[in-house]
Amino acid sequence: MPTFIPELEFRASFGFDDIGRGPFGARQVATIVEGKFIGERLSGTTVGAGADWLLLGEDGFGRLNVRATFKTDDGANIYVQYFGLLQMTDAIGRIFAGADESTEFGDQVFFVNPRMETGDERYAWVNHTVFLGQGRVLSGPRVEYVIYRVDN
Predict the structure, then answer these.
(1) How far apart are CA 64 and CA 143, in angstroms?
(2) Which of 20, 29, 73, 148 has the most CB atoms within 10 Å of its CB?
(3) 23-60 pLDDT, tens digit each
(4) Residue 66's domain spans which residues?
(5) Residue pair 133/10 in contact by the 8 Å Cβ criterion
């Protein structure tokens, strides 16, 4: 039976560009303005280009498609990509519209599956580790995740 071991917390703030409704739904690009991750084995900030190419569906869910670069406090670069599912509740809509409120973990469906890769031998373990995260949305807008390592 797999176990879920807390690996890190990740917080990011975004700036939004509304692409509009296209053939697959309403698209928004949420550029990462600032990001920080904290854990026992992984800590640092986001660097360079990073964004979520969020697709808002008619079914009330957003499909996340995020890419970012984590730079660890000791100088390693780790490429991170994750897909996820966000239930677009009334509270999420208000926060995206500028309301000064936050959701809690479990208030809505908000799960991600980060994949990490690096060439830095100190962190080579991320290349063959499965991660699962749960998120919440805060004013700003910002997101906060708890990322778990899946283990036997």
Answers:
(1) 12
(2) 148
(3) 999 999 999 999 999 999 999 999 999 999 999 999 99
(4) 3-151
(5) yes
The reply to whether omega before 114 is within 30° of 0 (cis) is no
Residue type, 17: D
d(CA 44, CA 141): 21
Question: In CATH, what number is assigned to the domain containing residue 103?
Answer: 2.40.160.20
Split into its structural domains, the chain has a count of 1
Please state the separation of Cα 91 from the chain's center in Å.
18
pTM, 2 dp: 0.94
Buried b (16+ CB within 10 A) or exposed e, 88-120: bbebbeebbeeeeebbeeeebbbbbbbebebee
3-state DSSP of the chain: CCEEEEEEEEEEEEEEEEEEEECCEEEEEEEEEEEEEECCCCCEEEEEEEEEEEEECCCCEEEEEEEEEEEECCCCEEEEEEEEEEECCHHHHHHHCCCCCCCCCCCCCEEECCEEECCCHHHHHHHHCCEEEEEEEECCCEEEEEEEEEEC
